[in-house]
Amino acid sequence: MNALSKAVVLIALTSSSAAFAFEALDFDTLDVDENGVISQVEASEDAELLNSFAERDTDQNGELSKEEFSKA
């Protein structure tokens, strides 16, 4: 496989991974119990969200509202 082919494959893989990551960050997808907030357990499905959970949880109630989720 030549360098150009490898680059195209790498770009394709990176693009598809980014699409899955974006989809995983959808509020409604993460709000599994559909109670209007994302708990830390629900956030654990997405490592990036879990890592930023405390920062986003501005009212420190252990849940992310849609407003808190949207702020990053």
Automatic annotation (TrEMBL):
Keywords: Signal
Region called Disordered, residue ranges: 53-72
GO molecular-function terms, A-Z: calcium ion binding
Basic and acidic residues composition bias: residue spans: 54-72
EF-hand domain: residues covered: 44-72
InterPro entries per the UniProt record, alphabetical: EF-hand-dom_pair, EF_Hand_1_Ca_BS, EF_hand_dom
Gene3D superfamilies with a match to the protein in the record: EF-hand
Record flagged with keyword Cytoplasm: no
Signal peptide annotation: 1-21
Top-level taxon of the source organism: Bacteria
Name this protein carries in UniProt: Calmodulin
Organism whose genome encodes this protein: Pseudoalteromonas prydzensis
